[in-house]
Write a structure and sequence with these properties.
By secondary structure, the chain is an alpha+beta fold. It has 2 domains: 170 residues, no CATH class; 198 residues, Nucleotide cyclase, GGDEF domain (Alpha-Beta Plaits), CATH 3.30.70.1230. The protein has 16 helices and 10 strands. Strands 3, 4, 5, 6, 7, 8, 9 and 10 form an 8-stranded mixed beta sheet that branches. A two-stranded antiparallel sheet has the order 1-2. The longest helix is centred in the N-terminal third of the chain and has 41 residues. It is elongated and about 105 Å long.
Length: 476
């Protein structure tokens, strides 16, 4: 149905263009023949120009204006019928030619000796002895040219921004009931048609899942994690174990004062930040498993999605902090761990028929390290090992912890920190990591020396300062 309407619209446009072209030719030919009457009415004088149009000149002016309007409409339709690259070229070429011609005439105007040139020189106040005004007019022409060129590119490329937003929305699985509209030229009509087909496919699948009452359907994020369409598939296969990356986000305020803000106000305040975090988790293909006051635990199938999401959460919280300067500063603590998680069907009659089992106590221990060491984002070696080889980001080794009689090596993410602090930490990274390894090996004197050197490079390194004090206490 949509395709037929699209073709019908194209036929209508072609017919209307033919009519406009015929009208344009009918108006252009007499306007060219009567152009001499128009120029006869423009009389050069010593003080500029005088306009004395006769009846023929007025008719010629009207025909010229109508031909310019019709020509502009036809030119715009021609541009819209071209692909983006050709549209940019054909729309820019006349502007470049006019700009070049105007600069040439401006530069050579002082060398022309006819009456019209003298009138133009007087009107523009330029002469061979006054090149300053000529330069000013050239600068003004250039500014006008750049402005028109920018506006031209902005209008032609505007549909690309709409395509980006629509693709981002469809990538997150969000559909719209109404028809998606992009606008722009012929090339974007085809893109619009394709995006509407994708949107309609999404709507059809969603409708099918809602109308199929034979089994309990799973949330979209769980379907991505498990590769299962409904609860019966999971029941038939029993328990399902998968290696996933868990992310725990906890929010705290370093200006919290019970006398200034009640517990209920603090709860609502922190939840306003959590409302920003949850959509980001879904955007990066994650699933929010637990949502509690001041914190969220989410599951990701890919470690790189979890880290990208953690970076996005940090940036969003920083932006929200800057927007709400009158409110307490909210500081996130983010920890990531990659481990095996068990998915099993639940016998309860709850709305969510899946039971997800993982080691929440380990995440609590990670968060404790994050809090005690004044860190923002930490992760374990298992998460690092689960990343693709070509995934690049900045991090440093911060030590090991023992959990369940196993050693777990921990790392701090440096990409989510302010750029000035991150650059200093990168410079002190090698020295700091040597200190940590000495500390892990019980060589506290050497560790203290390395931490002292690292602090000289980055005095704001709280984690290094804590290690320095601990090394000094161990020596005593």
């Amino acid at each position: 149905m949509y395709t037929n309407n699209c073709f019908a619209k194209n036929r209508f446009m072609k017919k209307s263009t033919k009519i406009l072209l015929i009208l344009y030719i009918l108006v252009l030919i007499p306007s060219l023949f009567m152009g001499k009457y128009l120029f006869q009415g423009i009389i050069p004088t010593d003080n500029g120009f005088e306009f004395k149009f006769k009846v023929e000149g007025i008719i010629a002016l009207i025909l010229m204006i109508i031909s310019i309007i019709l020509g502009s409409i036809l030119f715009i339709r021609f541009i819209k019928s071209q692909p983006l690259d050709k549209a940019l070229f054909f729309s820019s070429a006349p502007l470049v030619l006019l700009y070049g011609l105007a600069l040439f005439l401006l530069a050579e105007l002082t060398s022309f000796e006819n009456t019209t040139a003298k009138s133009m020189r007087f009107l523009l106040n330029i002469s061979q002895d006054n090149l300053y005004n000529t330069i000013l007019w050239a600068v003004l022409l250039t500014l006008i040219f750049v402005g028109i060129l920018f506006f031209n590119y902005f209008v032609i490329c505007k549909p690309i921004g709409k395509v980006e937003k629509i693709v981002s929305r469809l990538g997150d699985g969000r559909v719209r009931d109404e028809k998606l509209k992009i606008g722009g030229g012929k090339q974007f009509v085809a893109i619009e048609h394709g995006l509407n087909k994708i949107n309609n496919n999404y709507k059809f699948k969603d409708k099918t899942m809602k109308n199929d009452g034979n089994s309990t359907k799973l949330p979209k994020q769980i379907i991505k994690l498990l590769g299962k369409n409904d609860i019966n598939e999971l029941k038939n296969s029993g328990q399902l174990k998968k290696i996933v990356t868990l992310i725990s986000v906890k929010l705290s305020s370093n200006h919290y004062n019970e006398k200034e803000i009640t517990m209920e106000e603090n709860y609502n305040f922190l939840n306003s930040y959590l409302n920003v975090i949850s959509p980001l988790i879904r955007k990066f293909n994650g699933y929010v498993d637990k949502d509690f006051n001041g914190g969220i635990i989410a599951i990701f199938l890919k470690s790189e999605d979890a880290i990208d999401c953690a970076h996005s959460i940090s940036r969003s919280i920083n932006i929200k902090n800057r927007q709400n300067k009158q409110n307490p500063l909210v500081i996130p603590r983010i920890v990531l761990e990659t481990e095996e998680v068990t998915f099993s069907s639940s016998d309860s009659e709850s709305d969510f028929p899946i039971s997800i089992t993982y080691n929440i106590h380990k995440l609590e221990r990670f968060d404790e390290i994050c809090r005690n060491m004044s860190l923002r984002l930490i992760f374990s070696k298992s998460t690092l090992d689960n990343l693709p080889l070509n995934y690049k980001f900045l991090y440093r080794y911060i030590g090991k912890m023992t959990y369940d009689e196993k050693e777990i090596f921990m790392f701090e993410d440096l990409d989510n920190l302010p750029r000035d602090l991150s650059s200093q930490l990168i410079k002190s990274k090698a020295t700091f990591e040597k200190g940590v390894m000495m500390y892990d090996g019980g060589k506290y004197e050497q560790a203290k020396e390395y931490f002292s050197q690292a602090l000289k490079i980055c005095p704001k390194d709280k984690c290094c300062y804590i290690y320095f004090n601990r090394s000094r206490e161990k020596i005593k």
